[in-house]
Amino acid sequence: MSPLCPLLLTLALLAVPGVRGACPAAADLTNADGTRTCAKLYDKSDPYYENCCAGAVLSLESGADLPYLPSDWTKVISSIVVGQRCELTVWSGRGKEGKSRKFSAGSYPRLEEYRRGLFGDWSNAISSVYCRCLPAGPNTQTPEPLTQTERP
């Protein structure tokens, strides 16, 4: 086997989308029929950013209100991508109880980096979610920026 084979295989794997676990861009959250996805939640993250947003995926449409996540998704979410002009609100307790945080459009590959209170973080801590998107269109007013705030 020539020494070029491993190099070519590595380059081919890097060029194929979806082989790496890298998070998609917020603008890429669309369904096959062209409709927007509000957010995607992933159950795997990694110390290496290129390996984040892997594993099982839970896609949320605009208006998705889940005060009680399915049992296999409660407290396992570790990466999030929020679509453009969308906002995801999460809670640490079931029934929208406990600490909350709003995530605006963008990728959040390692929820370990986002504080939840004094000693906690948001990785494997989400039990309730609400996702909303502003309508897209030329006549839409520019909204105030969505902030990432944490309620005590």
TrEMBL record:
Primary localization class, coarse: other
Subcellular location per UniProt equals: Zymogen granule lumen; Zymogen granule membrane
GO CC term, one of those recorded: zymogen granule membrane
UniProt xrefs under InterPro entries: Syncollin (IPR028137)
Using the record for this protein, list the coiled-coil segments as residue ranges, or answer none: none
**What's a BP term from Gene Ontology annotated to this protein?**
exocytosis
Q: Which UniProt keywords are present, listed alphabetically? A: Cytoplasmic vesicle, Disulfide bond, Exocytosis, Membrane, Signal
- Membrane topology annotation: Peripheral membrane protein
Residue spans crossing the bilayer: none
Q: What is this protein called?
A: Syncollin
Organism, by scientific name, is Ovis ammon polii
Q: What is the lineage of its organism?
A: Eukaryota, Metazoa, Chordata, Craniata, Vertebrata
